[in-house]
Design a protein that fits this description.
11-stranded mixed beta sheet; alpha+beta; 6-stranded mixed β-barrel; 22 strands
Length: 406
Amino acid sequence: MALWKSTGNGTLEGISHVADLDASKLTVTLSETLKPIPPPDTWQFGNIMTDHMVVAEFDPETGWSDPEIKPRAPLSLDPASSCVQYGTTVFEGMKAYVGPDGKPRLFRPDMNMARLARSAERMALPPFNTDQVLALIKQLIIVDRRWIPLLSEHSMYIRPTLMGTRMGLSVAASDHATLCIFLSPTGPYFRSGGKSISVLAVFDTVRAWPGGTGGHKVALNYSPGFLPLRTAQKQGYDQILWLLGDDMKVTEAGAMNIFIVVKRDDGDVDLFTPPLDGTILPGVTRDSMLALAEAHTAGEITLPGLQKTSRIHASERTFTMDDLSRWSSDGKLLEAFGAGTAVIITSIGKIGFKGEDIILPEHKGGLGPIANAFRTRILDIQEGKEVWKNWGVVVDGKTAPTKTEV
């Protein structure tokens, strides 16, 4: 039974002697030998790691240890640890970009921190102060900032990971945990030259289910999709389109939120994405697109490449494979695309279902006008070329560690 109580931002309450996570107590041990940075054209997503990582541990008797930045190395885990035996691991995916002023920037990191705290709570893991986790991320970026690519559409991928480390085989929540934060420089997720991807709609296996963990970023959501993806790839498709229920409602595309653009009778377009019903991950890119669509239609902004009079009626609504087939047959299905931190936005050009394909309209460069407008605006904010609603958070050098061991 847990001996703590979680507050809104994950802070510990209830036991005075249990220490909360405290970034001001950070110590830094720098690597004596820095790794060479490979040419960006050799990068694949997540296959190159930077020199350092953040580690902190939670003990139910003492709370969080003083965090460390140290040379990246394997962690020591007991094979009976909860994360190994019962999959009690949660994580986040974030990116840092370099702006025109040469400073690193994070994109809406408050949303990632809130989601990390919710995921940890869902898996009954020890809570933590999200402000302190974000402070540690910023300090790690400063230490390894030489790895942030200076090329457009390139970034530093950030993976904060929380693992349950209670040793024992009893089926119970883990009251011990390890927080590890590491970095990976990355370029475009799909190296297809802007071409659209194809997806195979599947219904005999599911990514998430009502009452499950689909609305949280937990490790066990991802591995069950590996075999269906392998099967889809053998049939010539790039990704999975996950369906759910007897009515075959569309949920997500691979590990991405999905959006579709449907032509309206009045000449405007509808932008649909499935609602957050517990089976859909509340993506940061997803939320950003809905906000930008609303701002464009309200006349607050004009999305790149679109007319001010081009109205986008964005809504979270359920739609099924029958809906997609009907809209396609009627010539109303204009675009489909996946959205997420790793890919930003990628176009879907073909949807396979029960031996037949729905073919979407082709667009120069792969992305349709709506998808391209969102991608351009979001990337401009991420790279610091535009400022909107404080979405770009600058990582200032003044947040450097207070204690250093070399």
